[in-house]
Each structure stands twice: as C-alpha cells, then as structure tokens.
Amino acid sequence: MTKVGPELTLDASQLSEATRPNATDLLPQPTAPPPPRPLPKPLTDFKTRCYVIGRLFESTTRGGQPVGDIWDYEVPIPASDNAKSDRSLSHCNYLSRCDNCRGKGLVTCNASGCNGSGWVTCSSCSGRGRTETSTQIIICGCYNGKVRCSSCKGGGKIHCSDCKGGGGFYHSATLRIKCFGNDHFQKSFQQVQKSILNNKDDTNQLLSEKELKLIRFISYLTYMQTTTTTTTTTTNLTWNGSIRYSLAHIGYTAAALAYRTPNYLELAIKILKDSIERMLNIKVWGYIDRYWKNVHTFPDPVCHENIMYSSHLLQLLTLYESLSGDFTYDIDGFDFIWDKDNDRITKIHYNTTKLAYAIYYQMNEESSAGVSCEPE
Hints:
Layout: H1 41-57, E1 84-97, E2 106-108, E3 119-121, E4 130-132, E5 137-139, E6 146-148, E7 157-159, E8 168-178, H2 182-197, H3 209-221, H4 243-260, H5 265-279, H6 282-285, H7 307-324, H8 328-331, E9 334-338, E10 346-350, H9 352-365
Antiparallel strand pairs: 1-8, 2-7, 3-6, 4-5, 9-10
C-alpha cells in the first residue's frame, strides 16, 4: 500500500506577481473587429451616382439668366382688379452645388463617438468589452468595446441634410403678378395724406410699418429697377388701372413722404424723377392714336384734350422741381418721341412751363374752363 504524502498548502500572497494567475487570462480573448463588409450593389451604385453629381456641381453655379427688370415682362390685362397670377421664368432656372457636402451628397457622420469611423462605444459594456459582477465576468458581444454606428450603418458617411443627398440644388424663378386698379393707389395715397393731416405732433416724424412697406414697394417698382422701360400691357386707355395713373399716384405718395418725413427727401426725389421718366415713355402715352390720329396736332399728346395724362405729368414735374430744386425739366426740357407702328419718328419738345401753358390755353378756349379726357 502506497503511503500518501502530506498535503502542501500554498499561500497566494507569497507568490510573485509574475507567477500569480490572472482571472481574465483564463477567459477567451475577443477577436479583432472584422473588416467592413462590402456594400451591396444598389448602395455602391448610389454612391457612384452621388460622386458623379458631386463632380457636376463641383465647379460653381451654372446656367440661368438674371430675372431682369420686372417692367420688361408682358402679361395679359386681368379681367378684374386685385387679380393674381404666377408665371414661371424657365430661362432663369439654374443649378448650384451644395456647399455643405461639396457636391458629393454625403457628409461625415457626426454621431457621438463615431466622427466618421463607423464605430461607436458599446452602451452595454461602456467600451470595456466585458461586464463584471461579484461572481462572474461576462464577455460582451461587441468588438473591443465598439459597435457599428446606427446612424451611418458603419459606413462613416450619412446623407447631407441640406441637399438631402442630391449634391446640389435646382433653383427655379417664378414671377408673381398682382394687379391693382387705380382705386388701390388712390386709397393708399389718401391714407398717407390722412395720417399727415391727423398728425398734430410736429415732432413725431416716424412712419408706420404699413407706410414703410408701401415706400419699399414703390421704390422697388421705380428707381431700383435697372431700366425705365414700361410694359405695353397696362396702357389700355379704357382700363381703370392704366399705368399712367399708377405712376402718378406713386409720385404723389413720394411727395407726401417728403412732406411728412424730411429725412426721406432724397428717396422721394428719386421716386419722383423715375416716375416722370416712365411717364415720358411712349408705352404710357402711345394710346393717343386710338382717339386723336386724325387731329392736326397728332402725335402731340398734351396740346389737345387728354388731360388724364397731361395733368398728371405736370403735377409730377412741379412736385419734383419744388422738392429737389432741380429745374432741368424746365430749362433743358424733355421730348415726346413718337416711333410707333413703323410711323415716321417725330420728336416733340416741351418743358414744364410750355406744358402748363398748353393746359392753360385749352382751359381758356373752353367755355366750361375744363379740358376733356377723351374726344366728345
């Protein structure tokens, strides 16, 4: 019978650090993260298309023409006042590159912890790769404390939020047309005039928000435009919203502005001058051939009747001269140039004084001391 030796007892505290076993060494170690999986073909094609689109928009803004002067667009005369319509300006459409993604359609994923790597810290193990309790150590199913980012699916890129992944933008221009009759401008002028008369405090020179909007609107319609051309579609003699009335009341509103608020004097003068230049355009007074073609003074638009035009023009001229101190229209004068329908070009020279005398002469000749708008 074999004799059993005494049991040897070891004290772990007497062992060196090199020989002391580590509990984690006895557990299987996590493997390295696998390489990224190849993208499915549809997604690969999508990224290719995004790259092509990105190259398309990479240079700069492309195509499209400036909207230009709003007076240059001809629109049909509306059937009633306060009509609205939209017109697509296809020649102004253009493409532009997205600055956020530089035309690529994709941007770096900015999810917390990802920053384009495609991986984020595992929330189960807080990035340690395992969880420990008092009795056991559990290896997490992540890769060294990392999991694929749910935002970019591990790709590190996401769709650009600005262009929705398109890489650029398509810009289209639409001209919105709102037609107002003469009553609209007459009421606007009367409202400004009424506010002036009711303003008893001479120190209160502030304009209301509505008045400021009106001034901004008529500024855009007049001197802020690139040219002084006027569309031919609003010169119908019989229509209450003919352009001569609109221009006249725009000028009257500017004059009321200068009276109310001297700080806006320069602005009012610009509006008045531009209104006068547009009033002298044949597209405003060219309707005279419909009524006075056979009159011996034709094509003079102011010496025979037509007070519905000549009086407004004279009023604008005198308001401009009184506010600006500029008497160019009275000293150098201005010309009515008739060049309509291939007729012989005729230039008729006037100045402010001559225009006033032409109206005065007709009033003296008429027993009623008035001047007709149209032929009787």
